[in-house]
Amino acid sequence: MYRLAGSIHGIEMMVGVTKIKSRKVLILICGALLSGCAVAPKPLTSEQLVTQWVADSNDMFKDAEKLDSKLTFASAVARTLNYNLDKEAKSIEEALAFKRMDLSSMDELPNFVASAGYVMRDKKLASSSQDLATGSSGSPSFSMDQENGTADLGLTWNVLDFGLSYYQSKTAADRALIAVERRRKAEHELIAQVRSTYWRAVAYQTLHGQIKSVLAEAQNALSASKAVESENVKSPTEALRYQKSLLETMRQMRAVEQQLSTAPYELAALINVKPSTKFKLAAPDRLVVPHWTMPAERMTAIAFENNPDIHEQAYLSRIASNDSHSELIKALPGVGLAANLNYDSNSFMVDNYWADIGPRLSWNLIKFAHLPKIQKTSKLNEEAVKARRLAVRMAVLAQVYIAERRFKDSVDMYKQADSLYRVDSRLSWVLNQQAAADAAGDLERISAKASAIASQLRRFETYAQMQKAYGRLQQTLGRDLLPAKSFDGKNSIDSLTDTVEARLIQWDKGDKDADFKVVAAAVKSLPRNKDAMTVSTAATAKTAATAKTAVLASKANDLTTDLSRNILLAKADK
Questions:
Q1: Phi/psi of residue 307, nearest 5 degrees
Q2: Of 33, 48, 485, 503, whose CB neighbour count within 10 A is largest?
Q3: What backbone torsions phi and psi does residue 304 show, to the nearest 5 degrees?
Q4: Residue 490 has pLDDT above 70, yes or no
């Protein structure tokens, strides 16, 4: 008897030890799995960075047409709008927003879900029942196989989820339109940068050779002055003053060159060509000042209608309204309908296939109890969005007057710089014709040349500032240089350049009611020199004026962003 009890006790101890060891093994296995799931930082290797650099370098310039002719301002704008990487990123973000809008509309559809499962037990799922009156229990029984498979195909639709999905789709549509406005704003900013950078690059191309010539003459005169000083032909004071004047002139010329030397690289980045690319700019024979006589009231109306910032705030107001409706719907009861086709492989079941259908009602009473607070929060949110919208509208209103004032001031500055340049140029020419052979004559002639170059620099700088101010004015008004349909990926740079050229003529002449298609056709019909892709400004303006005369009496609409915006709004409504 004692032996039997001891044997049982030994078995229990062995089982207990085995359970303890099993737990330890299980803990060790779980610890190993958790440590294996931990992620450690892994910096990129030099080989990976080089591979990525090579791939990105190829992708950066692979789609750009070769620049094998002189670059006009219109072609620089066309290349910027077509190839600039910042603009390309905004376009992709816009396309992504519309794809998300399409995906969000799918949430309005019912859920149609298929599922399957498999269960395997090591023991039968047996159970016994106890009689409530007598307390006796029968033999254990089971009604499920040890291996069992299930499958079902269900269709569920909830009115509450449909309402939420509807307003979420409207929000996604508005966010897609916000992406459009941000792309437009990026285009306006890029065009304003091209306006300034292009003319600075033209100034560098024009003045670079002249600066080198003046520096060479000044260096020769400086060497000659030092030789005269060493021979004691003149007094040291006079020679040193002369050398100081020459060195000051050389410093001035190098400062001019340094100020302009980065412009070609900045322009290369805007038009998306390699900075090492050598290209020539088609400098016009004369610099044209845009004609602008639009009254402030008309500019304000155009800005309020077309400015991207105002559009974005308007869409944000609609999003706030949609959010308010969504929060209200969440507090309402949800009515749903579910229909399922089911299968169970359990051999004990009489019918392994069956279908069920039924409605379901759910209501978050806590959410409903907080409905007054939710409504107050939603109303406050709409008021905050409205306040931001009014602040932006006020900023745009002020910017209209500021941009016009800066443009007019820049025009006055350019005219003054142009007059000074003409005087300095004539003075330099006269002194060059009357130059004497002595050192003093050389100093006066070199100083006059340097002064003429500095005046020409100021002329180009003020013209670039005037063009930038004019671009900011157009940017404030929200006027798109090209219709949205111009970016269909099928137009060549030449055709896009013609469209830009026609639009620039329309703007520079202050002709907001001209027939854009007729002007574009007139520009496209002009002869194009393949070696020097330049369009005569005078001939273009004359042809455009002739085309304008042929336009019918009814005014054509100003082809701004209204066309593209209406198309996008119609697409969003669908």
A1: -60, 130
A2: 503
A3: -65, -25
A4: no
For position 111, what pLDDT does the model report?
A: 86
What is the 3-state composition of the chain as percent helix, strand, coil, each rounded to the nearest 5? Answer: 65, 10, 25
Local structure of residue 486 (DSSP, 8 states): G
CB 467 within 8 A of CB 195: yes
What's the pLDDT at 549? Answer: 36
User: In this predicted structure, what is the pLDDT of residue 16?
Assistant: 47
Q: Is it the case that residue 258 has pLDDT exceeding 80?
A: yes
The pLDDT of residue 422 is: 87
For residue 388, the one-letter residue type is: R
Eight-state DSSP code of residue 262: T
First to last CA, the chain: 89
Contact 221, 440 (CB under 8 A): no
- For the chain, the farthest-separated pair of C-alpha atoms sits apart, in whole angstroms, at 142
CATH code, residues 65-118+148-482 = 1.20.1600.10
- In the predicted structure, residue 284 carries a pLDDT above the cut 70: yes
Give the global pTM. Answer: 0.73
3-state secondary structure of 429: helix
Give the H or E element holding residue 31. helix 2-37
C-alpha–C-alpha distance, residues 507 and 484, integer Å: 18
